[in-house]
UniProtKB/TrEMBL annotation, chains A, B, C, D:
Listed Pfam families: TetR_C_24, TetR_N
Signal peptide coordinates: none
Keyword DNA-binding appears in the UniProt entry: yes
PANTHER family associated with the record: HTH-TYPE TRANSCRIPTIONAL REGULATOR RUTR (PTHR30055), HTH-TYPE TRANSCRIPTIONAL REPRESSOR KSTR2 (PTHR30055:SF175)
Domain HTH tetR-type: 33-93
Keywords: DNA-binding, Repressor, Transcription, Transcription regulation
Name of protein: AcrR family transcriptional regulator
DNA sequence: GATGAATGAGTATTCATTCAT
DNA sequence: TATGAATGAATACTCATTCAT
């Protein structure tokens, strides 16, 4: 608790724009370790399955066929692994959202639909990260290290809320709803689906999205 | 080591109703010691705030102003505390649901509305239990001890799904929705609200329920 | 909590012989780390001196000059240490017994004498293991883990009883004795000597054996 | 460890000849608590079955249908219970031994036979105490409190060894045996039988004694 | 890059014992 | 006599992390 970790701060890797020097010193060959990325993937799988806290560094190492101590050649803490996972997810989804907003132009209904489809679309590729966010966020947010995620969250919220408000102004969305509240409900409904969504199932992410769009736009009532 | 623990299963106390043979002793006054109940409440608060795993037995004891070992005079494991919390929640909500179903009679729309209002209504009194369910269920379900919760879940699902189907047959709900899927989305949307719902806030549980009912029944579109 | 311990069963190391798939790693050099063996020896000494239960993991670690947690790098439980000790003892003595039986051929008197000498002969090299068996068996046998020892015991009993019966049939042993009972008395008399037998004493294991053989074969009476 | 127990010393109860004031103060009605004696018996049974260390004060209390703390109204420590058990055993057997020696007169063979029969005869009435001695003595002897048992042991040893020596001098026992060694072997063989001796079995204590006397006096050889 | 050994701080749990009621 | 609550010290075991080889 209250880790006095030399590591706390911002994520080192993946950080900068172009060709960030990956780790302290060494000056590894730019696009560096596939090994590293492989390890992150293994860890993500475990974090999603058992939860961040319940997953031990040994679990990850065993999965990779090495000893736990050896992991510290690639990462400097367990936290930095999950950081990498979450950062990847957030960078990706925010880029996607921005694209949707731009493309959506002045059509709020189309934009919201696009955002919903995008969100559902991340369920499969970012399954592990989303699961971690759902299950372990309450724990993770306790560490200053992950404060940046809250900031990203705020930016995302603004995108959705602005679109909802625009829709109300244009008369396409009901006026008796609180945009902020509505956004949260939509957001949570999408992400929480990670708990029972099965990638290979007959109801894929697209099907889910369409089903939800129907309910969200027109309700369950038969008009 | 070689735990001869007789605890696994259902909580001992809480006997009240039918045949709680207390152990050898007296036959104490049914109401499972206020002390115990107080401790459960403290623990629930902590579990909700920090998560089940991250909450140590010491945390709970300190909160109660006693030593950690002393907790074992009242409970025989950390698990049995959370068990008591969750059992209480499930017993309560299922009773409420059954009442709604009965009272709803043959009006699916009213019944669903009642279920939604009931669910939102538990947010405040069962805040801690619901938070634990949302955050720690992934971990907790790994233990056979909590298998019974899954069974309760199934029973609840049946109530909702049956009502949704009845509504479709009566022509009040759209036919192009999957009842199971719809149930899940409604359920998750309600519970997940625990993350940002603030008991004292201007938007109380009732307000939330009404807002959600609007969206759920008629969608966000302006018709 | 929810021990995902893969350890229960037989000791991992000691693989040597046949098919010890080590885990994922290399395939290390058969001889189960000298460090480990050294630790087992230290533990055995303590178990013998203070008893299994009264010996704490800290005691063992302190004796080894490390911290108690560090022991778990080598063993996964206190039980697995004592298991290793007892297994070593049983494997050794059973092999010796089998050799005596084979070499004894058709001479029951010689065979019994050989068995007695063998048994006394283990007093010194297996002092600790035998002491543990004498003092802690009542406790240890309560754990399924050590059920295999009972099986080995049965096999040993058969060797002795068969030999005693053969002797009776050949007319070298009295007919008015119960072979099983006689075996038990001999066995216990030998092992119980561990309580006062001092390795360096003037009465070494061989002397003890010869003394006992005299009494056992011809009694204390002067004929 | 190194109990700073106010209680250490000699057993208070059972001590004096006639009407010892049983416990500190109160001046209870002379032949006092049958309750107390009952509790000792329950405890003895548990100690025998599970071992002294593995038996918790709660175990004993539960067996008696009271709470663990209540036991301290009768005894001032777990040790004092086992003390009472062992003291009772030793007092009884030493009295019996003395009687045999006196009655044996100048016939060493008859005396030894009497001692052996006496020893086997205690197996049933003192089953629990003997079991405790066999299994837990190694632990118990570490406490100064039980030093007096060693003294009693020495006295007993002297009785046997003197008799054996007398027999050698009279020419009834072989000269080539070490009296002390022989005594120990006989003693241990008898007590250790407690491990497999079953009170109700077809081979009762008397049968065991006779069987052993045969082997002890004349050996297993057919002459 | 990896091993193998160790650290150090922590975790849930146990248990003999005390004591006010 | 007994209860019920608590103590305090110990116990086996866990785990992220470090580091010499």
């Amino acid at each position: 608790m209250t880790t006095t970790n030399a590591d706390s701060g911002r994520p080192r890797t993946r950080s900068s724009g172009g060709g960030g020097t990956r780790r302290r010193g060494k000056g590894s060959p730019a696009l560096a370790s596939e090994r590293r990325e492989h390890l992150v993937k293994l860890a993500a799988e475990l974090f999603a399955e058992k939860g961040f806290q319940a997953t031990t560094v040994r679990n990850i190492a065993e999965e990779a066929g090495i000893l736990s101590g050896s992991l510290y050649h690639h990462f400097d803490s367990k936290e930095s692994i999950v950081d990498e996972i979450l950062t990847g997810f957030f960078e990706d989804i925010m880029a996607s959202y921005r694209r949707v907003i731009e493309e959506g132009g002045d059509d709020p209904r189309a934009t919201i639909a696009g955002l919903v489809r995008t969100a559902f679309g991340t369920l499969e590729p970012h399954r592990a990260a989303i699961t971690v966010m759902q299950n372990d966020w309450n724990y993770l947010r306790g560490m200053e290290r992950f404060a940046y995620l809250t900031k990203s969250e705020d930016e995302v919220e603004k995108m959705w809320v602005d679109t909802l408000k625009a829709g109300q102004e244009q008369g396409v969305f009901r006026l008796d709803l609180d945009p902020k509240l509505t956004y949260r409900m939509i957001r949570d409904t999408v992400w929480v689906a990670i708990r029972w969504f099965k990638p290979g199932g007959k109801l894929n992410a697209e099907g889910l999205a369409e089903h939800y769009l129907k309910v969200m736009f027109d309700g369950i009532n038969l008009h």
